[in-house]
Amino acid sequence: APMKMFSKVRFSMICLLCFTTLGVSYSLEELMTLLGLEAEALPTLKGAEATFWFADVSGRFFGGLLLYFLGEKFNGYKWNIVWATLVFIGTCGIFAILSLDLNGSFWFMIPPIFVGLGCGGIWAVIPCLILGDGGYKNLGTNVGIAILFAGLGICLFGFVLELIGKLGILAGIFFLFFSLIGLISTFIANSDNDKSNPKKGGAAAPAP
């Protein structure tokens, strides 16, 4: 049952990761729009958006390949740490750009690469992790719950950015804080998985 999944710390952390990391990441486009219009740097804005979505798709593709070929030695919970770290590095870049008032400059093209790759990788891994913990029976519902949390984060953070997006450094702190929470959640989920699957080396195998 879906509610039974919440009794597992790692599933709750997956939902928190979706809400925070994916929520702020997909709100990045909202921030780029606000800052791009303010700085009258629409060419840079369009380039940054295209870079983000290309990196996102690439992250999904390579994230799936890496999990498929290396999943037995380096399971999905550990890959989520890698992907969430990339997002955090990207938000550090966003914070630096906003702090130094480099809006609309070439430097604004770089953070979306890290954020997009991280987001794509997370999307590739999460359904596999949920399948391993919950099995096929409620897979659609459980994955849907994770997506719901991501959607709530996107809506909420997008609304907040409408209020603070033009405040520069405050928006940077906002991105940094919530991506850090998402990163911490991946370590907690990995630790819980290792405790639950000590004989498998923490590997999350599909449940029957």
Structural description of this entry:
It is a single chain. The chain is mainly alpha-helical. 78% of the residues lie in helices and 0% in strands. The protein is built from 8 helices and no strands. α2 runs antiparallel to α8. The longest helix has 29 residues, at 42-70. It is globular, with a radius of gyration of 17 Å.
Question: Would you tell me the overall average pLDDT?
Answer: 84
Taking all Cα atoms into account, the compactness measure Rg is 17 Å
What structural class do helix, strand and pairing data support? mainly alpha
Low-confidence stretches: none
User: What gross morphology would you assign?
Assistant: globular
Termini separation (Å)?
14 Å
Number of strands: 0
* Count of separate DSSP helical elements: 8
Work out the helicity level.
Answer: over 70%
Q: What portion of the residues fall into strands of 2 or more residues?
A: under 5%
